[in-house]
Design a protein that fits this description.
Structural class of chain B: mainly beta
Number of strands of chain B: 12
Structural class of chain A: mainly beta
Order of helices and strands of chain B: EEEEEEEEEEEE
Largest sheet of chain A: 7 strands, mixed
Strand content of chain B: over 45%
Shape of chain B: globular
Number of helices of chain A: 0
Distance between the termini of chain A: 31 Å
Helix content of chain A: under 10%
Helix content of chain B: under 10%
Radius of gyration of chain B: 14 Å
Number of strands of chain A: 11
Largest interface: A-B, 29 and 30 residues
Oligomer: heterodimer
Distance between the termini of chain B: 41 Å
């Protein structure tokens, strides 16, 4: 399935963080979502062929990368308290997205 | 922009009974997908059922079925013979296929979720 690392992460305001995702075997498209506590996930961006193909309403502090093996990273710079959330990665085939277990980021 | 609305923040049901979760959406698109996802306390988002907008027949997966009303932009989920393991947050989600950059896999737009509790 889709794997994500780390499981939990605690950072302080102003720091930078990198989250990692390995897609399900055979999937070449990776999407990232931010899920605040008690809310539905919000789309951050999507990567295909190592390029950002779609982007949601998130500031440039959120950036990403996709590697030739289709794995992906999400980077967040200058962390704010409001960036505390569950970050979900999803890989897709035929319109169906499979989600990883998420990374819980806490910003203090 | 598409929006998805789940008007029931919380629902509860007795084990073995039937419960229906509501979802409405707003879009001007004619071709799209609709999904119900389940997120238990373990937080892993699991696909429950999917519906293609061009299909008139309602999707069914074992105890889970949908009532898709395209004209009304309504997409409800019915869970029959509820089980304790059905306890979770349920999200309705919309996806418009996208050809951005050569991929047809669009972004998901989620509702706010409904917390379902199944009581023994």
């Amino acid at each position: 399935g889709v794997t994500q690392s780390p499981t939990h992460l605690i950072k302080t305001r102003g720091q930078q963080v990198t989250l990692r995702c390995s897609p399900k075997s055979g999937h070449d498209t990776v999407s990232w979502y931010q899920q605040a506590l008690g809310q539905g996930p919000q789309f951050i961006f999507q990567y295909y062929e190592e390029e950002e193909r779609q982007r949601g309403n998130f500031p440039d502090r959120f950036s990403g990368h996709q590697f030739p093996n289709y794995s992906s990273e999400l980077n967040v710079n200058a962390l704010l308290l409001g960036d505390s959330a569950l970050y979900l990665c999803a890989s897709s085939v035929l319109g169906e997205q499979f989600f990883g277990p998420g990374t819980r980021l806490t910003v203090l | 922009a598409q929006t998805v609305t789940q008007s029931q923040p919380e629902m509860s049901v007795q084990e073995a009974e039937t419960v229906t979760l509501s979802c409405t959406y707003d879009t001007s698109e004619n071709n799209y997908y609709l999904f119900w996802y389940k997120q238990p306390p373990s937080r892993q988002m699991i696909l429950v059922i999917r519906q293609e907008a061009y299909k008139q027949q309602n999707a069914t997966e074992n105890r889970f079925s949908v009532n898709f009303q395209k004209a009304a932009k309504s997409f409800s989920l019915k869970i029959s013979d509820s089980q304790l393991g059905d306890t979770a947050m349920y999200f309705c989600a919309f996806m418009k296929p996208s050809n951005a950059g050569g991929t047809s896999y669009g972004k998901l737009t989620f509702g706010q979720g409904t917390i379902l509790t199944v009581h023994p």
